[in-house]
Write a structure and sequence with these properties.
By secondary structure, the chain is mainly α. It has 19 helices and 13 strands. The strands form six sheets. The chain has a three-stranded antiparallel sheet. It has a two-stranded antiparallel sheet with strand order 1-4. It has a two-stranded antiparallel ribbon with strand order 2-3. Helix 15 packs across helix 16. The radius of gyration is 25 Å and the shape is globular.
Length: 545
C-alpha cells in the first residue's frame, strides 16, 4: 500500500472523539464516570493483575461494615449473584468469559474495572463534551452517581435508601483503599467546539428531565434508562454529522446557525429524519419504509468518511501554514476546530493548498508501480484539484475499510439487538437493517417528553394526546411513525400508503398500552391520552400513579 500513517489516520477529534469500533454502553458509561469525577479527564489507575469474579467476591466478603457477613457462608451463590447482578462480563457463558468491570451502578465503578477489557474507544470523552454544554445536567449526573460520596474527601457515606448492588460496589471500593491510587490523567481536558450545538443542548435537557424520576424508581432501573438515553443521543449526534460534515466540506463553511446555536423552535437543516416500524412484520409496508430510511442513512457513510478525511487533512495543512507563519492555530498546534479547518477551503488559500497536497499526491503515486492501476489512472484523469485528487486516492485505499468500522460502531450506538434498540437486523448480517422503536426506548422517551415546564419554569408532568406525543417525537428527535419524513430518502415521488401508516400508528398505541402509558377511558378522542407513570410537579404529591 502506498499510504503512510499520516495518510491513513482517520480519527478526527474535531468531529467526534470516538475511535469507531463496536461500543458497549456499560463500558462507555463506566469510563464516563471517571471523567465526571475528575472534571473531564480520565482516571489513571494501575493494577498488577486483572480481577476475576472470585477476586470481586473476595473484596465483597472482606466486609468492614458488617452488611455482607452472610455472603461468605455460601460462596457459590455469592459468586453467581456478583457475576449476574454486579459485573459486566465479556463473552458471558463461554470458555473465554472474563470480567470487564462492575456495571456502572455507582460513580466509583470505574475504580474496579479491568481497563484492557473495558475500552470505551473515546465514546466517554465525546459523551462528556456533549453533556458539558449544560453545566446543570453535568452536575446532576455527578450528584446522582456519586450521591453517597463526600465530594470533598471522596469517602463513602451510604444513605439509608442505597440499593444492595451499589452497597456491594462501595464495599469493594473500600476494600481496595490504599492498594490502588485514583488520580486524574496527565492531560488536561480538551474542550470540543461543537459543529452544531443543538444535539448537545437537547441531550442536556433530556438528562435533566430523566433525572427528575430518580426518587420513583430503583437506581438500577434509572441507570439502565440513562444508558439507553445516552446511547440514543450519541447515535442522533452522529447521524447529524453524517449530513453536516459532507455538506460543510462541499460548501466550504459550516452553517453559522449551527455553531452559534439555533433559536428556540428553529429546526436545524441537518436534523435527522427517520421512519420507525412499530408493526414488526418484515413483509409489511411500514417495515419497507423503515428499511428505506435505514438504507438512506447507512448510504451516507462513504461521504462522511470522505468529509472526515477532508477535515483531518486540512488540519495537517493548517499546521504546515502555521509553521510558515501564514496561519495561527487558535487552540495550539495539535487541535483545530472543524469549522476553522473547513475555512481553509477559502480561495485565498488555494495556491498554498495546491502546493501542499500536490506533494502528497506525488508521494503516493511515486510509490505505485508503472503503469498505474486503471482505477488510479481514472482518478488522475478526472482533472480535479490536488486536494480533491488526494482525497479520492485516500478513499480508494481506505474508504471501504473505514466504512466497515463505522457500520459496526453505528449499529452499537443504535443498540442493535439490545434492549432499547432503534435499529434491528433480522437474520444477523445477512438481513437488512430497519429502524424500530423498542419498548424500553419508547418508555425512556416518554418519561422525558411528558415532563414539561409551567409558566414559572418549573418542571411538571402532564398527560398528552397520542397525536401530541407523535408530534413531539417528530419535532424533538426526528422520529416519524404516522407520516413519512419530508426528506432523508423520502422527498420526491413518494406517496405514502395511508393504510400502512394507520397500521403503524395503531401498533404504536398498542405498544403504549403494553408498557402502561395509554389510557382509553372512552371513545371520546380527548380522553385517549398518554399518561405519565409518575406525577412530578411543584404542586403535586410526587407519587407514582
Amino acid at each position: 500500500m502506498a499510504l503512510e500513517s499520516k495518510d491513513r489516520a482517520f480519527r478526527c477529534d474535531a468531529i467526534s472523539r470516538i475511535d469507531y469500533k463496536t461500543l458497549t454502553m456499560d463500558r462507555v458509561l463506566t469510563a464516563f464516570l471517571a471523567r465526571l469525577w475528575h472534571g473531564g479527564v480520565t482516571s489513571r489507575m494501575r493494577r498488577a493483575t486483572d480481577l476475576d469474579v472470585d477476586a470481586y467476591v473476595d473484596l465483597l466478603v472482606d466486609d468492614k461494615t458488617g452488611k455482607f457477613v452472610g455472603f461468605a457462608v455460601n460462596e457459590d451463590i455469592s459468586r453467581r449473584w456478583v457475576a449476574t447482578h454486579v459485573l459486566d462480563l465479556v463473552n458471558r457463558g463461554r470458555a473465554t468469559e472474563a470480567v470487564a468491570g462492575p456495571r456502572p451502578l455507582h460513580g466509583f465503578a470505574y475504580r474496579l474495572r479491568n481497563a484492557a477489557r473495558s475500552r470505551p474507544y473515546g465514546a466517554d470523552e465525546q459523551l462528556y463534551e456533549l453533556v458539558a454544554i449544560n453545566d446543570v445536567a453535568l452536575q446532576g449526573l455527578k450528584e446522582f452517581f456519586f450521591s453517597d460520596i463526600d465530594p470533598a474527601t471522596g469517602e463513602a457515606i451510604p444513605g439509608p435508601d442505597i440499593d444492595v448492588e451499589s452497597q456491594a460496589l462501595l464495599n469493594m471500593v473500600e476494600a481496595t483503599q490504599g492498594k490502588a491510587q485514583d488520580r486524574p490523567g496527565d492531560a488536561s481536558r480538551r474542550e470540543q467546539r461543537q459543529m452544531c450545538r443543538q444535539p448537545a443542548e437537547l441531550l442536556g435537557e433530556d438528562v435533566l428531565r430523566l433525572l427528575l424520576h430518580r426518587q420513583f424508581m430503583p437506581r438500577t432501573v434509572l441507570v439502565e434508562h440513562l444508558k439507553i438515553l445516552l446511547s440514543f443521543h450519541l447515535a442522533l449526534y452522529h447521524l447529524r454529522m453524517f449530513k453536516l460534515v459532507p455538506a460543510a466540506v462541499r460548501d466550504g463553511a459550516v452553517d453559522r446557525a449551527c455553531t452559534t446555536g439555533h433559536q428556540h423552535g428553529e429546526e436545524c437543516r441537518y436534523r435527522p429524519h427517520i421512519f420507525v416500524d412499530l408493526v414488526g412484520s418484515e413483509t409489511g409496508l411500514p417495515a419497507a419504509y423503515a428499511t428505506k430510511s435505514a438504507a438512506t442513512w447507512y448510504g451516507r457513510l462513504p461521504q462522511f468518511v470522505r468529509g472526515t478525511f477532508a477535515v483531518l487533512k486540512l488540519t495537517d495543512f493548517a499546521k504546515d501554514l502555521h509553521r510558515q507563519g501564514k496561519f495561527s492555530m487558535p487552540l495550539g498546534k495539535e487541535d483545530l476546530p472543524a469549522t476553522d479547518a473547513i475555512g481553509l477551503l477559502d480561495d485565498k488559500y488555494e495556491a498554498d493548498r495546491e502546493i501542499f497536497f500536490d506533494m502528497r499526491v506525488r508521494r503516493i503515486l511515486d510509490d505505485e508501480e508503472e503503469p498505474l492501476a486503471p482505477e488510479l489512472q481514472t482518478i488522475i484523469d478526472l482533472g480535479l484539484s490536488r486536494f480533491e485528487t488526494y482525497l479520492e486516492l485516500i478513499m480508494h485505499y481506505r474508504g471501504a475499510f473505514q466504512r466497515k468500522y463505522l457500520v459496526d460502531c453505528l449499529d452499537s450506538m443504535l443498540l442493535k439487538g439490545r434492549p432499547g434498540e432503534l435499529l434491528t437486523q433480522p437474520r444477523g448480517r445477512s438481513g437488512v437493517r430497519r429502524f424500530v422503536l423498542d419498548s424500553r426506548l419508547l418508555e425512556v422517551l416518554l418519561q422525558v417528553c411528558l415532563v414539561q415546564h409551567d409558566k414559572d419554569g418549573r418542571p411538571r408532568t402532564r398527560p398528552m394526546r397520542v397525536d401530541e406525543v407523535l408530534d413531539t417525537f417528530r419535532t424533538r428527535y426526528g422520529i416519524y411513525v404516522d407520516t413519512l419524513p419530508p426528506k432523508d430518502g423520502f422527498q420526491g415521488p413518494d406517496l405514502p400508503d395511508q393504510t400502512a401508516l394507520r397500521a403503524n400508528t395503531a401498533a404504536f398505541v398498542d405498544r403504549l398500552r403494553e408498557i402502561g402509558y395509554y389510557r382509553d377511558l372512552s371513545d371520546a378522542y380527548l380522553t385517549q391520552t398518554v399518561t405519565p407513570r409518575f406525577t412530578i410537579g411543584a404542586n403535586s404529591e410526587r407519587t407514582p400513579r
